[in-house]
Amino acid sequence: MKFPELVTSGCVRLAAAIFRKFDLDKNGLISRKELEESITKVCSVSPRTAGKRASAVINEIQANSTIKNKGGEDVEFNEFLNVVAASRTGTNAPETKKLIQNG
């Protein structure tokens, strides 16, 4: 299945809304710190655990992204959208759904 088949316009709008919510400083990027704060709030875990998860998520996103990131360690919207699209059918779909619903 190709990427465009997985992403509907509704999915893109939802991903954009979630991205804006996680982008706390509104600079168009989600930093590890911003993701850490969101994970702490959504998953009710300690900041230390959230920091480890945030680093792992960012590393995974960037390792599997076909998009050249201009934001360094930060996550750009297109990278985020790739993850949302992949999570619709992937094994991490339940976790992503929880994060999206509670984000």
TrEMBL record:
The keyword Hydrolase does not apply. Transmembrane segments: none annotated. InterPro entries: EF-hand-dom_pair, EF_Hand_1_Ca_BS, EF_hand_dom. Keywords: Calcium. Residues 10-45 form the EF-hand domain. This is EF-hand domain-containing protein. The keyword DNA-binding does not apply. It comes from Lotharella globosa. GO terms for molecular function: calcium ion binding.
